[in-house]
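Before going further, learn to read the protein records used in this course. The integers have meaning only within a learned vocabulary of local backbone shapes. The record below shows the convention in full.
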Amino acid sequence: MEQEAENLLAAFIRAACVPRDASHGSGTLAAANAILAAHPQIGRDDIHAAAILGSHEAVGRLLGADAGGATRRGGPYDWDALTHLCFSRYLRIDRTRSEDFVLAARSLLEHGANASTGFHWNGEFESAIYGAAGIAHDAELTRLLLEHGADPNDGGETEYHSPEGFDNAAMQVIVESGKLAPSGLLTMLVRKLDWTDFDGAEWLLTHGSDPNLVSHWGDTALNHALGRDNPLRFIELLLDHGAEPAATSKNGLSAIAMAARMARADVLGLFERRGFSTDLGGDHAFLGACARGDMDTARSMVAADPKIVARLESQDAGLLAYAAGAGNTTAVALMLDLGFDITSRTSKAGASEDTALHVAVWRDRVTTVKLLIDRGAPLEVTNKRGETPLARAVRALVEPSEWTPHDSVDLVAALLGAGARADAVRHFPSGVAAADELLRSFGRGA
């Protein structure tokens, strides 16, 4: 009977806590709730289950009977109660329980729980504050842990994950604590650029994030923003806060050279308007000419160095895709005229062996997509995810990223009109009404 109770508790903990071997933000409460409905005593009789549920009354009662429960390890993962609490799916999913979780955590801390607790997994330390701030994004629980000595400099997890999404309250609590190292502030800024969260990036810049530091990925904030193809106002924001376009990343590239590589004529123009020289030499001068659509200069450089296109593509096959992703249709047309390969691929900035057409579709660059179709971009080629450009367009209707979801029905229509096969999208969720209607209108219902 005792073994049966232990097995039941273990099943509940596995269902109610974040998975260790999958995304910590994944999963639902369905399995845990089913166990709890059949065996409600679990949440009343065990300190670990009570902590997972944020049942502060049960936690307080159990600690009153046995104060050692605050530090005792248990369950299938051998975690203490505060670790279970901070990595609870209930904490992440059911925000109505936030106050109860804070009260339960306070009781545990007052009875000796360590705010710097956590668990080791695959050589990494997953701290309690990472669970609170980086997974659940619970500002008050994060504040409580910091007040009791938690260190947000936990190997990168908290600084990397707490800026994810657009709820910045927990991130702001960490920064305002004054405990985060400058490198962590930069990581947070980089993540806000990844999410194209302008308000979050601006807040971090006004609270000490240095845009000229080089991140542990090797980029300055400007170079990172360009690598993610952030809108122009993000570049303006960084310049407003002292970012230096001439500063180089670990690869030796300045933001000026990076803007040329990414075909960001708008950024090169911005630098010039702000008084920065955009003079470049060698291959980057050629890429700058392509970015600006300066046909005469680009053609003259190819005439003087006929191997320049092949050399650049051998160094970075994604150059055409970057121009397509930037929506620089003029640059894409010129680069194709100069011999850049329309079938080349990239895996940078969220791509997965994507062609230029895949990238332009994902970023809703309608004019560029139509040009690539007209110039013979392959319609049925798949990326590493197994997606054709049409499948990518349909997924962009429903999947959130820094670029999506967006209304890509015009892209769906353009691809179908060019002959793309609709059966490539069968594995996507049904019910994307606009796309479904278009597929049917072309007689190709998925």
